[in-house]
Amino acid sequence: MRFRTPAGAVRVGEYDPDAEVVAAAGRAFDRASVDVLPPCDPSKVVCVGRNYAAHADERDADVPDRPLLFLKPPTAVAGHGDATPLPPNTRVEHEAELAVVIGTQARNLDAGAAMAAVEGYTVANDVSNRTDQDREQNWVRGKAFDGSCPLGPVVATPDEVPDDATVALDVNGERRQSGSISQFVFDVPTLLAEITAFVTLQPGDVVLTGTPPGVGELTDGDRVAASVEGVGTLEHTVVREPPA
């Protein structure tokens, strides 16, 4: 887990979320004095749409015959414990996802060897502005707004995440989403091969793998907890931005 402390950014190998003190870089810091950072610094986030058939169905959309790709910029990335801004006058929904963190520069990967480029997995919430997404084709307003990609809290190695790992999301303690990565339309190696046929992935880049069914609206003050079995739980709040 990465923290911003009064001494700068540090990485902690073991972290107790209930501890009042964070030990890092040979020093101890009061937990209230540190911020949890995203676990990586991507140059881009490559996202995959409709990678669960049940989610495509709830969106009244077809399952794509090849991975449906779109991008989020670095300014969309937020950390565990951050507040996600909801653009004014929009309907915004949550999308819990398994996120793949890239460990080495990758281009033209073969699916059979693609996992060698993966550092590990983390948790993401692909926060989506449906009001504008449903009006546009490139989804910039709908998907790429500031803070729309909370990530974290840690990166787990692929062998720590079961092949049928559960992806889930709660809002204010109520379960909204639950699915398994075994339900992917396109698995992680297939996604990496398809993406790197067009785009060079750099170390720290992130690939979002799609969301299970159960997406729903977020409102001002909601507390969100997204989880992936084997990784942990990403928590954040949401705050409605006032009209300009």
Automatic annotation (TrEMBL):
Domain of life (superkingdom): Archaea
Domain Fumarylacetoacetase-like C-terminal: 44-239
The keyword Isomerase appears for this protein: yes
The keyword Repeat appears for this protein: no
Listed InterPro entries: Fumarylacetoacetase-like_C, Fumarylacetoacetase_C_sf
Pfam family, one: FAA_hydrolase
Keyword vocabulary terms for this entry: Isomerase, Metal-binding
Recorded name of the encoding gene: hpcE
GO MF: acetylpyruvate hydrolase activity; isomerase activity; metal ion binding
Name of the protein: 2-hydroxyhepta-2,4-diene-1,7-dioate isomerase
